[in-house]
## 1
Amino acid sequence: MGEKTKIMIIICDGMGDRPIAELGNRTPLEAAETPRMDMLALRGETCIVDIIAPGVRPGSDTAHLALCGYDPYEYYTGRGPFEALGVGMDVRPGDVALRLNFSTVEERDGALVVLDRRAGRITEGTDELAAAVDDMEIEGARLYVKESTAHRAALVIRGVGLGHEVRDVDPHEVGVPIWKAEGVGEANEKTAKIINEFVKRSYEIFKEHPVNATRVEDGERPANVLLPRGVGLAPHIPPFGERYGLKGAAAVEVGLIRGIAKYLELDVIELPPSVTGGLDSDFDALFAAALSVFDGYDFLLINAKGPDVAGHDDDPVAKVEAIERIDVALEPVVEKVATGVHLALLADHSTPCVVGDHSGDPVPCLFYGPGVRTDDTATFGERTCAYGGAGRIRGQDALPILLQLSERAEKLGA
Ligand code: ZN
Ligand code: ZN
């Protein structure tokens, strides 16, 4: 075996797309000027990747689990825990976590009837409201609440004997009474009881809260309850370092992915405020921050969010621009990987502009570094990569391929 090399995975979030008429029936990646990605593809080996499986639409969370070599069907146990991680909450294996909506309800015949699931699209004061119900004790469990963007928040329940197969309280429609959390069996019943009590307390505390007094004075709907949904159990996930014997770090722009990285016990690299996670993000600063610590690690995960944002906005021109800006910012990375690093550059899923959301279309991918079998692909794009030497793989296969190239794979058999 040769000397072990370092591994880097660069994820251009949501970069995959479909041909777009206004781009001359090219995808944004095909239309973009990307001399650095093209060079890496030319000197590397390319393929297309079904991030989860063919036709499956990945979330960014499940996609990153897969690309870090974890089976999302085994380790993804509901959105709640990752949502909570994404807003920076402390989430531990065994915790039960839920998504919350600040909502408006009205008492009718002893029931709470939903008037507005988003409390008049509340944007301000949710931090104060969340603080008012944070760190409570119910049935011997501790409950933590933190606001997220707009009307959203997250709830973490920490205690013993908790189940997570519990019905939502949010009825997902207006004009009807809120549901009661219900579950079968002792553990689920306990969680349901805690959740119902939490909802009741949030109503009692919020209806008297000054934030809502001001809202009502201003003619706005009060955020007078928190409605839980998306309950999930925080999974026991083997830490990345233990599983692969690699000291790893992550330079990622958005909370949800930072949460995943933390959960895998990757070191999360501090990024300057100019790295916004939006289309205006400073990709130079993102890559500079990542490279500045790379000497201390065997593995580095980088996520640039821009292309996904443009895809959700159905803005092909902005998506081309974001991809081109990432390509320019890749210059120091290109220099670094040329010293003998094994690199995979790909998207975590497609976010086609015409769809405005994630799709199951496979994404282009390139492997670069010593020993890769170069192929005939000379430009980096969805269709050129489909002719690549590595064929068509799953997201979970990317890391083993890199481990093998970097002389870290165990032999199976004698
Ligand atoms: Zn994504
Ligand atoms: Zn997205």
## 2
Amino acid sequence: MQRLRLEIKGAVQGVGFRPFVYRLALRFNLPGWVSNTSMGVVVEVEGDIDVLRRFTEAILKEKPPVSILQDIYSEYLEPAGYTNFEIRRSTGGSKEAFVLPDLATCGECTLEILAPDNRRYRYPFTNCTNCGPRYSIINSIPYDRPSTTMSGFSMCSECREEYENPLDRRFHAQPNACPECGPHLELWDSSGIVIAERDDALRRTAAEILEGRIVAVKGLGGFHLMTVANSDEAVRTLRSRKGRKMKPLAMMFPSFSAISEVCRVSAAERDILESSSSPIVLLKKLDHESEAVHISELVSPSNPEYGIMLPYTPLHILLMMEIGEPVIATSGNLSDEPICTDEREALERLSGIADLFLVHNRPIARHVDDSVVRIFNDSEMILRRARGYAPLPLSMEEEESASVLATGGYLKNTLALSIGRNVFTSQHIGDLETPQAIKAFGEVWSSIEALYNAHPDIIAFDMHPDYISSVRARESQLRGIPVQHHIAHVFSCMLDRGIVPPLLGVSWDGTGYGSDGTVWGGEFFHIADGTVKRIAHLRRFPLPGGDSAAREPRRSALGLLSKLYDDPVKYLPAGTFSIEESDIIKQMLASRLNSPLTSSAGRLFDAVASILDLYQTIEFEGQAAMALEHAIGGIETEESYSVEMIQIAGEPVIIDWAPLVKGVIMDAAEGISNGIISAKFHNTLAVGIAAVAQRVGEKKVVLSGGCFQNIYLLGRVSNMLENLGYEPVIHRSLPPNDGGIAPGQVMAALFSESKK
Ligand code: ZN
Ligand code: ZN
Ligand code: FE
């Protein structure tokens, strides 16, 4: 006879863990107790050592699907003489326990809302301990009903019974609700007048959407704008009202089978689509048109992929069943503002975009956008990390005594916070370009500190002097550590994959402020022996107009060509610039006024896209580079241009793109297709990266930065590195783009602290 004590850390609260242990103890006939504590869950059971061992194995094997066990500490003690098994009251505030992300509706709840004899038939706010809202309704922890946005609803007797019964699926399901006692729907016209309620509101919404109307639908973490995806007219109207010309629009599909009508879906992609995170998954369009499902050309123009998700709340399931065909489900905002969460605010901000508003009275505690994911080599790569993922932490190798708060970058901003071993990254906030985004940045900052009751010692931020995220960080009272943008990218990937130095970090993106005051973006770092050394970078060229070059690939092209030719305009497609424009830019370049130097890989992509006349000006970040990647299509070629390395003693190696750009121009003049030129261009960059890897000789090669969202480049580089015996390390759980900067800043700050 022994007493076993287990202390379990991780995502173990609000996931049905205690009732699971309760049922397990009954099955093994073990007396004892289970309780939530400030760090997780504690279990004590008494019995035969053999049975205790099998009990522990069963915990590991059968744990609730949405729980995550991070650490399990076990010890054997003298028996205490327990006679029955009980769920004890929670002790202490749960500050270390994880807050869970919002979880897609589970199979059991889905069956209930579809069963006419169930009391939750067609009830859009059904949930249980295995599914439903979490992060989007939590005001503070411990995670109990009074600290959620459900505090205003008191449970009816039937719901209360479920909530209190350890054998019920809804035992301590904090947002538990039913049509009797829970939130309900309303359909409003554009002036906020109620035109339908409850199930009528839902049916009416479906009918209006089918008519081609644009409806703002309040969901889990904010509003979507929805309309039918098969109508050019509806999509065109939405695009013009939202001010979004070309950027692909996300869609929600009624079923997996409908998705497979229009996309090629692998088993790994299907798993992610149907997972409890239920993100938007980027999927390859099929070559042929489907007869059953039509999607307007305007949804994802000149792009070989769609961004698709499945319904993830009972509201979406019911709505999609009613509509029966794919809808656009794009964030309810103006371009690049944070997603709208409050119905009154929505009326104001989305007036002029939405014809109608489907709203409900369960408040949203914080905005949580849909996450965006792609599958690369059968593994998930998160491109936008929000619903379904945030705020789950990534854990570091070791416990750190200092707590670091990081304020992230400028585009795709997120914040991050480290406590002990864990690094928590906030949900996606967005580009800090609008007052709304800056306000959201401030809200997420205070909420992430409050949620974990954190008192950070250090604040880490981007070196850029003008980023609002950096300015705010410098204004704080905390000790500041500025972190170079591209170094943050590399550390982000290291945290993501649990990689420690020595290693080579390849950090390629659009732009970031370099520690020498120039604009970086094609960087290589050797991280070893406690230091980070910039070991190589792409050759620099001037960016006429500075920041405005990011929106005009033709400016990158002109800057780059000015390093090669006396009359660079001649090498650009006719009409790229007017005579006046090119005169101004030539003067700019000659006087070096407002023409910062850059080693950016992203701008090199832009320049080549401009030379090939894919895009001269763009609407969204990465648009020209994506077009260049997509130009390759299915072309397979091993050909490349040549790469030159310039080595000056004591300086980083310079990778010279001159032979590459001249090769592109020659091929284009000979009428070689853009696809082949682009493939050769990508191949050349991969050769360049592999060449640096061979010079440095570190086995691990970390690939980070927005350029590694480019699947062709990523595939090419990682294959080449593997063939040469290196170990390419690529992102999975943190975005390779600037959404991953904040956790990278935390890691880089801790790295620099550890040297002291
Ligand atoms: Zn459920
Ligand atoms: Zn109820
Ligand atoms: Fe970046």
